[in-house]
Amino acid sequence: QKRNPHECEFHQAVKEILESLIPALAKHPEYMDNGILERIVEPERMITFRVPWVDDQGKTRVNRGFRVQFNSAIGPYKGGLRFHPSVNASIIKFLGFEQIFKNSLTGQPIGGGKGGSDFDPKGKSDREIMRFTQSFMTELSKYIGPDIDVPAGDIGVGAREIGFMFGQYKRLKGAYEAGVLTGKGLSYGGSLARKEATGYGAVYFVEEMLKDRGLSFKGSTVVISGSGNVAIYAIEKATQLGAKVVACSDSNGYIYDKNGINLSTVKRLKEVERKRIKEYVTEHPHAEYYEGCLGIWSIPCDIALPCATQNEIDESSAQTLVKNGVKAIGEGANMPSTLEAINVFLKNNILFAPAKAANAGGVSTSALEMSQNSMRLSWTFEEVDAQLYKIMTNIYRNSVAAAEEYGHPGNLVVGANIAGFIKLADAMMAQGVI
Length: 434
Ligand code: NDP
Description:
NAD(P)-bd_dom_sf; binds NADPH dihydro-nicotinamide-adenine-dinucleotide phosphate; 434 residues; Rossmann fold; nucleotide-binding; alpha/beta; 7-stranded mixed beta sheet; 17 helices; NAD; 2 domains; NAD_bind_Glu_DH
């Protein structure tokens, strides 16, 4: 905190993880002796760069680009790129730090990284997006590669942005390195089911957790925040499993549809027309729209899946959810619950699926995309989806087992953090002090 006093989100993520590692450190003093904690919180490399581009009016604009290469003990750095005005070094470091444990937990050979820019894609034309992403990639391309660092999408970075960045990388390198980015379009090396993977994976994880208490998505009322990539496919899978999803949101407000959200409307508004979620009520007048994001948590539900952004559930929203009878929380977004909110859930014995475990389906499927690119093969949707399901249930079982082994049965925050940490710490120990 003394060295980087302004990095609040990063400190929050470090605090959450380090506190939960105490039982593991007590059992493995060798990690402390070898400076694992001091090394693990320090990124191997943090790159910051200027991204100049020209807007449609001919005006030169400058944004800031970031890539943190946090830890490569297990494999090449892997993690998404976020384009959002709130992006700064703290946000990128918190996301990169979370990513190293998440990637370890997946059981796949991927290290952790993250990147992005404070560029705001909202309201920009396709040409502006192309010019910005080309400029961004011109600099980023110096630091990435299929065996070095493999970025993907995150908030504000979807198939369109990945496509432009892939094209620019190929042009700069003069080589077709399909494995340099994941989340690519299906016609040029993308994997079936990658688009769906984070949302589907979160629902698979939560369904496993519910099963252990004799519960299920079937017949449940669900609230899902966000209406982006993760939210849309969480809505889809939860609905397929028999739940009624009654609310979703964007950064302006939320909609409540007591009959259950019409997903094809949301998909068209958000994926094709890039409109605001409030447009939903013009097509479905019985639904209601409310300005502001926090209010979504006052809607009574059995299961809440925060799938928008960090710190979107604070202590008082958590208390409201508990008061209204919520049974389970599944974090689709990264760090959507504040530390105080997590404590409210745990104290009230609410089933709680932490992001690091619950949203690992996206990066897991990205690793499957890398495998397909290496083999120059494309697997079917069913094959990838079946592997995703298996990975999510394994992550759940491993987290449950670690929580039990280290004296916190049922606490998946402790379980996921320790399970991810042990594998990483062992790999770092084996590779010496580097
Ligand atoms: P998208 O950009 O596709 O969607 C983000 C959604 O969240 C949009 O509805 C957006 O609204 C809303 N949102 C963004 N910022 C805010 C904010 N500050 N306040 C309220 N709402 C906000 O992103 P993704 O769905 O890909 O990502 C969502 C979350 O999931 C992020 O935390 C991301 O890190 C995490 N995640 C994503 C993975 C993936 O595979 N995509 C993998 C693992 C985690 P608006 O349109 O108004 O901006």
